[in-house]
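Reviewer 2 asked us to include a model.

Predict the structure of this chain.
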Amino acid sequence: MKGVLAWVKGHLVVVISVVLALAALPVLLVVSNGMNTTLREDVESDISGKQRNLQQISVQYNVEPLDPTEVAEGFSATPNEATTNAVKAVIEAHDRDATRVLEAATARNRAGKTPMLDGLFPSPLPAETTAKRQGAARAWMEAHADVLRRVGAGGPVKQADMLVILQARATQETERMLTTLGVSELDDEQKAEVRKTLEALRLDRLRVRAGDVSFYATTDIFEGVEMPEGSGLPSLERIWDWQHRYWVHEDIVEAAAAANSDPLTGLVYRPGERPVRRLVTVRTTPWEYVADSASSEPAQEERRSTRRRRAEPEFPTGGGTSVAPLSSEIRADFEASLTGRAGWPYKANPLYDTRYVTVTAIVDGAGIDRFIDAIEADNFMTVVDLDLAAVSPIDGLSEGYFYGPGSLMRAEMVVETLWLREWVGEFAPDAVRERMGLPARPEPGSGNATTNEGDMQ
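Predicted model (structure tokens):
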């Protein structure tokens, strides 16, 4: 014991420190426990506050409708994976639907549309350029004749042919009456009887011809479709305009044929049941893509003379055109067009171009709606203006046209046609693409992916 006390006395400072530490331990445990409780409460309070803040966060989910005239659907909600995935699925479904609609619209718009001359568009091979451009005008003329033959349209009995038929019949009737009557010359009454026979024959031949054609139409109804004057080669841009105008004319001719045919059997109605009796004129205003001293002034004059009131917008002049991306909204513009649809060259948009054609026809007034319906069902075409004037059944007889019964009317209409850039741009020459605001084609071997015709900046 004495030894222990001696050691304690010798190490008094150490012993005092140990004693103080042992005495403070319970106090430190109490203080530490209080600090842990406070810290825990502070952390829990902070976490609870952050959770409340997260729960109060609201995100606006919007789904744009496929129909731009409808209001977008949307709602506010706390962001979470399930809601985000559900909205994403709806948006992706809309995107797939929009893609299918565009593909279907493109297929309809380009159905049957082929270049009038193989190897001509977007540009012929260098070795074939001269030959292709030389043959373009003739191909343009032949294409119009071919479409009329394809639908069974044709002209009236030719006057020269009718004259030969009537002269032969007149001789035959005169000789028969002279022989029967035993006279050397017919009197006025007998001559009148011969004339009556000839009139009946002529009317019968006209009636037969009316039944032989689906409607009256010849290549001269297409105003401006003629062999160009001069020996110079037409520019590729001018040839492209010929091609595009032909596609417009083709749609109008096919619509007239569809109006005159039974939709179930495809057979042409009898002459007196047809709404379209004759196409008188079909006129599409030329477009200008680049300055062309050889054709600019005539085209401008034709444009001024063929523009019809406010149904067809004024054609703009100037340089190239830029348009927004295809994903941007295309707003209706009723100042540019009666329908609110206005594409290049009147007001460029990335989806379609608009072209107007004026059609004059002899129709059965009771069936004019069938002709209009056929026009608007054939392609993306809309009748935006219509004038009607009464026609007498005997009108046209002197020229060989037999219109048959019905409330005959002379209809003059302006038709707005739409052309989707998605496929038209594939054929358009480079200078035309630039003028229309389409992107340049990638260079061969550049490795660039196929450019979307709609993604135009």
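Residues 12-56 form the longest helix (45 residues). The radius of gyration is 42 Å. We have added this to the supplementary material.
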